[in-house]
Amino acid sequence: MIGKSALFTRNAIASFIRHHGHGGIPGENLPFSINNRYKLTALFIAFFGSGFGAPFLIVRHQMTKS
């Protein structure tokens, strides 16, 4: 019983890797390209900068509104 389940698990994992795996290439499963270092830097600055700057912009908007 245990041998059959172990064989099934091994076959299922091998099938998943064969059909859905990315081959272990770094960055292949990311939703953005890491080939252009300047574009990647700009995206990181925009992503983290928007999250850091949003509270300050909201406070400024509320203070100038009144």
Q: Strand portion, in percent?
A: under 5%
For the terminal residues, how far apart are their CA atoms?
73 Å
CA gyration radius, whole angstroms: 23 Å
- Mean pLDDT, to the nearest integer, reads 83
Helix content: over 70%
Total count of strands:
0
Quickly count the helices: 2
Q: Which spans have pLDDT < 50 for at least 5 consecutive residues?
A: none
Sheet/helix structural class: mainly alpha
Summarize the helix and strand pattern as letters. Answer: HH
**Major sheet summary line:** none
How would you sum up the global shape?
elongated
How would you characterize the overall build of this protein?
This protein has 66 residues and is an all-alpha fold. It contains two helices and no strands. The chain is elongated and about 75 Å long.
Produce a short descriptive summary.
This protein has helices at residues 2-20, 37-65.
List the main descriptive attributes of the protein structure presented here.
66 residues, mainly alpha, elongated
Tell me the layout of helices and strands.
Blueprint: H1 2-20, H2 37-65
